[in-house]
Amino acid sequence: MARMKFLCDAERCIECNSCVTACKQEHEIPWGVNRRRVVTINDGVPGERSISVACMHCSDAPCMAVCPVDCFYKTEEGVVLHDKDLCIGCGYCFYACPFGAPQFPQAGAFGVRGKMDKCTFCAGGPEKDMSDEEFKKYGRNRLAEGKLPACAEMCSTKALLGGDGDVLADIYRERVINRGKGGEVWGWATAYGRPEKGPAGQTAPGQPGAQPGPQPAPGGKS
Question: What is the pLDDT of residues 104-127, one digit of tens each?
Answer without folding.
Answer: 988 888 878 899 999 999 999 999
